[in-house]
Write a structure and sequence with these properties.
Translation Initiation Factor IF3; 28% strand; Rossmann fold; globular; aminoacyl-trna synthetase (chains A, B); protein biosynthesis (chains A, B); five-stranded mixed β-sheet; 15 helices; alpha+beta; 493 residues; homodimer; ligase (chains A, B); Pro-tRNA-ligase_IIa_arc-type (chains A, B); Proline--tRNA ligase (chains A, B)
């Protein structure tokens, strides 16, 4: 069984298969009988819960409050904002009826044709429309602004090709929707929330991200600007990990949301929206994990430390447990999540493989000889380094090791990412090299034509115009036309 | 504006209207453009979040883990369990298509008739079917049991008559689903979770509940036993506030879920499910609140203490704020949520009325004279008692007052409930008295006929056979037949 656990596709053999295997074998998620929808298993959900809790705290620190808006949105709402409907028309689930027909024996169930809805309802793919329809009633004067709402919910986009966490028809996310009196304030809020996402990705997930602004083609449907954080996976592909949109007055105009300014004159309200989803789970898995399984950042690991006794007989187990108990207590007092696994039905070897697969950051093991020598075995999951250390001071050692792992996996991911960001000025060279992954910093003439040509010929897309990059003008590598800035081009998930 | 806030229907005039008014005026929720679906506003959602956090903690203490299962369930799954489909067939939302059709200008959107789903999908009204279809793959041997999963999610039941929180087409809830090797273990789990609900209702919501078992007619569709907690509202009506079901092997048989026991023989798995929903918000509002607005239990109040400075000019405000700051800091250090409302745009009188309406448990106010005299005004929301006290020791006073309010509102609700529980042995008397509300303890012959007759003639239903009641046999008040126990009969929400 321990061997079976280890029987994971190697990243070098097939990165994509390695990911799919790992999601299932580490008990994170599985496919469901509903096309494109997944079941998030308890271990996977526990990681998502930790993400939620931290993000929620960070949102609230910026003044955001949670609320809840309906799952179903009247179809007509989508038509109000022209770009929005064009963006989402092809991927919505539509509720047309509200009743099954049940036969006496309960064996056959038909949709009752008489229970057709007057207006069809869409399962929300995103909630701008119903929220702005609501804000109309909440906003009258400048005193009512800003409104800073967020909701944690499920959304549905009928995707043709799905992969667990990365792209599923139903997914869990948060969507923030803010309303402001001025353009400047809304723009600032959109950028503030992007910074929250970047801070979360780097300091909690240990995932380095590049912040930037999307090209017009890649913007959210209805936005004037879409800001993004882009992470690099171990195959050099990009994963868009969170977006924040400056929506201008588009939704305010579509839903007629005005406020009276301090001069008592009506003005349209300015908007932002921003979201991250269970897609972050995909980034977390793909950035850190290895051929032995998951590698989790300590700050998001459901179990931070696992302790396995290696005993001969019950008496020795009692001795080991008695020796370990104060350590378990002290670690828990420090707020560290400890699992003591003395389950006799599973062998230590199986447990070791299983916790490696599940990415538990630190593993302690204690056997008979350790008891005699006052030692304990400690292993860190990120480097798989194992050593036998003195039992005294183990609490301090574990605490420091958790901090070090958190830092180390981020540094490792950043070093990998930095080593795979290239400036490139030659399209032929680009076409050849982009196949192997990486982020390419290339001058772009700003036209959708060039963007489309690159995508068609290389499957790579413009990820963003990066913020933290000193720009110099140049020449578009494809069209030869003048370009004001370099953009990041990469293949992506 | 303060007057408008107070313009709440009186309970004595129209209890039902008072409730509807209060939900809107206290900013808890509002109707949405989607029939029967509500928008939970930030203040209402903040209360629900506190409920969720506490319940989630209590569930986890019993070993339960969270997971997430799909929103959409294949129609055929519902047919597998005969009673289940009969119970839910009339109230489901059905997804038949997965795509809109968009025209060029974005103005018209039609459902694309070519994108009809092969199998229609139901928006979950509850998730037993898809969860037991999943458990089939998770359960092989006795070693895989028990499975203790919960999910926090939205569900949809197409209700014809809706009221905010009490009965809405979409609502938020948690649904726990457990799988066990033995009947005894499953029965014990169903009862354990009922006790968790009762403890939460009484110790956190301050709502006294009667625990008991439902009659066969009132059971959950597919259950062998449904346990319930029943609370009494201020109009004497019952509100079913949480249910826990012993499902026997019904779903295991429908979805063919067996395990190999220790003798390596296959047996069907035993099941429970249990849930509470945003309906609890209705109970919370109706049990404690009064003609001035909400009364919230301190343990669930988003703001526990509000402090309002009553200043003349900015200089005095600075003095008051400087004096109060250490108190604010000390209260927050004790984990108490404090709002200091020095917003100059609103008058103190408006603030007082608003925080009363919103049920903030303790209000402090400090003016110029208080500064001189080293005093402060304190008001408790439950009794509306107001007094001027010494500033010294205010932190301790507030802390104790919060504890006292939590206790007092529970005691008050329990005294009211206890004063409205009656033994009754005469059907004519019952018919007359039940109009005025109250719980009636009556002997029942155990037949569905008698139950139906009572319901038809009085609109009252059997709420449960209560646990904590010393039963003596007697004679059914309606049929005159022998009865082994008294049941609780009441009108209900």
């Amino acid at each position: 069984m321990a061997k079976e656990l280890k029987n994971l596709t190697k990243r070098a053999d097939n990165y994509s298969q390695w990911y799919n295997d790992l999601v299932v074998k580490a008990d994170l998620a599985e496919l469901s009988p509903v096309r494109g929808c997944m079941i998030i298993k308890p271990y996977g959900y526990a990681i998502w819960e930790k993400m939620q809790q931290q993000l929620d705290k960070m949102f609230k620190q910026t003044g955001v409050q949670n609320a809840y808006f309906p799952l179903l949105i009247p179809k007509s709402f989508f038509s109000r904002e022209a770009e929005h409907v064009a963006g989402f028309a092809k991927e919505c689930a539509v509720v047309t009826h509200y009743r099954l027909r049940s036969t006496e024996d309960g064996k056959e169930v038909e949709v009752d044709p008489n229970a057709k809805l007057d207006e069809e309802l869409i399962i929300r793919p995103t909630s701008e429309t119903i929220i702005w329809n609501t804000y109309k009633n909440w906003i009258h004067s400048w005193r009512d602004l800003p409104i800073l709402c967020n909701q944690w919910c499920n959304v549905m986009r009928w995707e043709m090709r799905t992969r667990p966490f990365l792209r599923t028809s139903e997914f869990l996310w948060q969507e923030g929707h803010t309303a402001h009196a001025t353009k400047e304030e809304a723009e600032a809020k959109a950028q503030e929330m992007l910074k929250v996402y970047a801070e979360f990705a780097e300091n909690y997930m240990g995932v380095p991200v590049l912040q930037g602004v999307k090209s017009e083609t890649e913007r959210f449907a209805g936005a004037l600007n879409t800001y993004t954080i882009e992470a690099m996976m171990q195959d050099g592909k990009a994963l868009q990990s969170g977006t924040s949109h400056f929506l201008g007055q588009n939704f305010a105009k579509s839903f007629d949301v005005t406020y009276l300014n301090k001069e008592n004159k009506p003005e349209y309200v300015w908007a932002t929206s921003w979201g991250v989803s269970t897609r972050l789970m995909g980034a977390l898995i793909m950035v850190h994990s290895d051929d032995n399984g998951l590698v989790l950042p300590p700050k998001l690991a459901p179990i931070q430390v696992v302790i396995v006794p290696i005993n001969k007989g019950d008496e020795q187990l009692a001795q080991i447990t008695a020796k370990l108990q104060p350590v378990i207590d002290q670690l828990r007092e420090l707020g560290i999540t400890v699992k003591y696994d003395d389950n006799p039905a599973k062998r230590p070897g199986f447990k070791f493989a299983d916790y490696e697969l599940k990415g538990v950051p630190v593993r302690l093991a204690m056997g008979g000889r350790d008891l005699e020598n006052n030692t304990i075995e400690i292993m860190r999951r990120d480097t798989l380094e194992k050593e036998n250390v003195s039992f005294d001071g183990i609490v301090e050692l574990v605490k420091n090791m958790l901090e070090d792992i958190q830092k180390n996996i981020f540094e490792k991911a950043r070093a990998y990412r930095d080593a795979h960001v290239y400036e490139c000025d030659n399209y032929e060279e680009f076409k050849e090299r982009v196949k192997d992954g990486g982020f390419f910093l290339c001058h772009w003439d700003g036209t959708a034509e060039t963007e489309a040509k690159i995508k068609e010929e290389t499957q790579a897309t413009i990820r963003c115009v990066p913020f933290a990059y000193e720009q110099t003008p140049g020449v578009d590598m494809v069209s030869g036309k003048p370009a004001v800035a370099r953009v990041i081009i990469a293949r992506s998930y």
